[in-house]
Structures are given as structure tokens and as C-alpha cells.
Design brief:
Largest sheet: 10 strands, mixed
Strand content: 15-25%
Shape: elongated
Radius of gyration: 21 Å
CATH class of the largest domain: Alpha Beta
Structural class: alpha/beta
Number of strands: 14
Bound molecules: S-adenosyl-L-homocysteine, iron/sulfur cluster
CATH architecture of the largest domain: Alpha-Beta Barrel
CATH topology of the largest domain: TIM Barrel
Helix content: 25-40%
CATH superfamily of the largest domain: Aldolase class I
Order of helices and strands: EHHHEEEEEEEHEHEHEHHEHEHE
Number of helices: 10
């Protein structure tokens, strides 16, 4: 038996050629493509306007390597974390985060992560592999349906803040966004998609060259080099100076504002001196700062107290910076940022 190809790695054109070779009409490929990307089906049987003969033919040569949901946990605040088994047995997690004004899915881009940030649970899992385009797309499509089922409306936002470093899976991440945003796909707005990176310099520049339409968030966490290297080993080779160059380049090319993620760690990065450094760094390009409440992981860190967090925010605002204090969601089920570690 020949190996079946995952249908979503095959272009519409190649499907058309396949159909012609098998004595079928090429225009069917367009319909098939619509089933795959617009309706996000995960089996040939669902393609009801395609003849049984063609569906059988397709199923002989191609397959859907679908995500299999294994557990879903619901938090008291409505956040739902779902673990999916991949066709090779690896497990990833996605999180549905409903709030008053939006419904967000947080998707994974890799199985585990090799960057080993000191505060992050995912960083303790050795990176097994990159996710495929279909595996990223499926998380969005599946959680979109889940959102409709659970809360009666579709997703409004997508954040690439689950497991993994999206910019180390550059091509698949960008292709997944193409299918999520294109008219032939889910037709969601790129302005409602945010990709978060720990700061892969070369690929921040590549995003600029590719003139992306989605939003970029950078996990900064401190604007002091020595501290950042301790918290985030990536900073040892890709430090704040290089990051600052990349950000300048990115802003010049795209005209886009950057979002900085700043995790508030008690006694580590939350002093007035830290705030001053951050304010200075933030002058590189127009930006928005998200101060993030720390979620407990198996680490020595503790989160900054509320009162202190507000003071930190006030200082930044006094420097005319846009600041959001982001309260954590889904903490009771380890579904919050940095807690995804396949504990379920
Ligand atoms: N690898 C990418 C995207 C995934 S991490 C990145 O690092 O940006 C998504 C976000 O979760 C990042 O901003 C990360 O710093 C944050 N995060 C990691 N551990 C966390 C924790 N314990 N509490 C709160 N946020 C955390
Ligand atoms: Fe990887 Fe991001 Fe976690 Fe760092 S914070 S270990 S880059 S997933």
C-alpha cells in the first residue's frame, strides 16, 4: 500500500491535475478546496456535493491527519483548555478564552519549546517538532466550532501564544494565517491575529519584508540585558540591542505598532528602575505594553502584587505610553499563558 498524503499539503492545482488524470473534471478541485479550507471539514464524507465515486477516489490517495480532542477542562471564568492528540501521538493544547468584548483562541505552534524561559512551563518540555499548517489551522477551526457550541458565537481573535515559538516555525505559521484570513478560507481579519515571539531577530525582519498584515507581540519581560539573559536564554545571543534594531526595521517597513508582553515578577523586574528602562526601550517605535500577571509554574518566581503592578502601570502612563494590565484567565486549570505543559 502506498502512503496516503495529507490532503492539506496538496495545492488546489495539484488536486485538479489528480482529478484530470483520473478522468474527472478539474473544476471539482475548487469545490474540494472549499470544503477543506472554508468549511474546514476533516473527512471526505462531509463533502456532500462531491460524488461518492470521487470521494472514494480521494480517500484512496489522500487523508486528513486530524486533531483528536482528548480532554477539555473548563475554568470557573469560562476559559476552556483542550488537549489534542496528533497523528503521531504527540499532544498539544489550545485555549478558548471568552471575555465580554471578544472571544479568543490561543493556539500552539510547536510541540514543546526549546527556548527554556525560566518562568514558562512549556519551556520545560523538549521541543519535539513543528506543527504543520493543517495542525495549526485545525486548532482554530475546531475551537471556532467549540466556541459556537459553548457560547453561541464564533471566535473574534487569534493569538499565537500557546506552546512553542511561532517564529521558529515561520513558514507554517504564515501559511496557516493565509488560510485563516483568505476569502477561500475562514476569512477572518488579520488585524485580529497576534503572533507572539520571544525575539527571533532574523525572523522579525523577515516579517517586515513579508509586509505582514497581522499583529506582532514581543515577549520583552525586562529592558535590562543581564536580567533578560537570566530569564530568557535566547537573549544571550539575540540581545536587546539586536532586538531594538529589528523592531526599528519592522516599524519602518510595516508602519505597525508593536505590542510588548511584560510579565510582572515580584522582586525581579518590577521596580521603578525597571519601569524607567522599559519606558526608554519603548521609545524605539510606537507601541503598546501589556503588563501580564504571572501564572504559577514549577519555578521560584512569584507574581507582583496588584498594588505594585498598578504603580508600575501609572509610571509608564505618565510617560505617555499605552499600557494594559492583563489579568490572567484560566489559572485554575493551568490554561493561562506559560502554563501549557500537557499536565492533563
Ligand atoms: N514563544 C512565544 C509565544 C508563546 S508564550 C513567546 O514567548 O512569546 C506566550 C506568552 O506567555 C509569552 O509572552 C510568554 O512570555 C508568556 N508566559 C510564559 N510563561 C508565563 C507564565 N508563567 N505566566 C504568564 N505568562 C507567561
Ligand atoms: Fe518558549 Fe515562549 Fe515559553 Fe519562552 S515563553 S519557553 S519562548 S513558549
Amino acid at each position: 500500500m502506498h502512503e496516503k498524503k495529507e490532503i492539506r499539503t496538496v495545492s488546489a492545482q495539484d488536486i485538479a491535475e489528480f482529478l484530470i488524470q483520473n478522468g474527472e473534471k478539474a473544476f471539482r478541485a475548487k469545490q474540494i478546496n472549499e470544503w477543506i479550507w472554508k468549511k474546514a471539514v476533516t473527512s471526505f464524507d462531509e463533502m456532500t456535493n462531491i460524488s461518492l465515486k470521487i470521494r472514494t477516489l480521494l480517500a484512496e490517495h489522500f487523508e486528513f491527519q486530524t486533531l483528536v480532542p482528548i480532554t477539555s477542562q473548563k475554568s470557573s471564568d469560562g476559559t476552556i483548555k483542550t488537549a489534542f492528540k496528533l497523528h503521531d501521538g504527540n499532544v498539544i493544547e489550545s485555549v478558548l478564552i471568552p471575555s465580554r468584548s471578544r472571544t479568543t483562541v490561543c493556539v500552539s505552534s510547536q510541540v514543546g519549546c526549546n527556548l527554556a524561559c525560566a518562568f514558562c512551563a512549556t519551556g520545560k518540555l523538549k521541543m519535539q517538532r513543528n506543527l504543520t499548517v493543517a495542525e495549526i489551522f485545525d486548532q482554530v477551526a475546531w475551537v471556532n466550532k467549540q466556541s459556537f457550541r459553548e457560547y453561541g458565537h464564533k471566535l473574534t481573535n487569534i493569538v499565537y501564544m500557546g506552546m512553542g515559538e511561532p517564529l521558529l516555525n515561520y513558514e507554517n505559521v504564515l501559511k496557516s494565517i493565509e488560510y485563516i484570513t483568505s476569502e477561500e478560507g475562514l476569512a477572518m481579519s488579520p488585524q485580529r491575529i497576534t503572533v507572539s515571539t520571544s525575539g527571533i531577530i532574523k525572523n522579525i525582519k523577515r516579517l517586515a519584508d513579508d509586509d505582514i498584515k497581522f499583529e506582532l507581540a514581543i515577549s520583552l519581560h525586562t529592558a535590562i540585558n543581564s536580567k533578560r539573559s537570566e530569564l530568557m536564554p535566547i537573549n544571550k545571543t539575540q540581545d536587546l540591542e539586536l532586538l531594538s534594531d529589528a523592531i526599528t526595521y519592522f516599524h519602518k517597513k510595516t508602519g505597525k505598532r508593536i505590542t510588548y508582553e511584560y510579565l510582572m515578577l515580584k522582586g525581579v523586574n518590577d521596580s521603578l528602575a525597571d519601569a524607567k528602562k522599559l519606558a526608554k526601550f519603548s521609545k524605539i517605535a510606537p507601541c503598546k505594553i501589556n503588563l501580564i500577571e504571572f501564572n504559577a509554574t514549577d519555578s521560584e518566581f512569584e507574581g507582583t502584587d496588584n498594588e505594585y503592578m498598578n504603580k508600575f502601570a501609572d509610571f509608564l502612563e505618565s510617560k505617555n505610553l499605552i499600557v494594559n494590565v492583563r489579568r490572567s484567565k484560566g489559572k485554575d486549570i493551568d490554561a493561562a499563558c506559560g502554563q501549557l505543559a500537557n499536565k492533563s
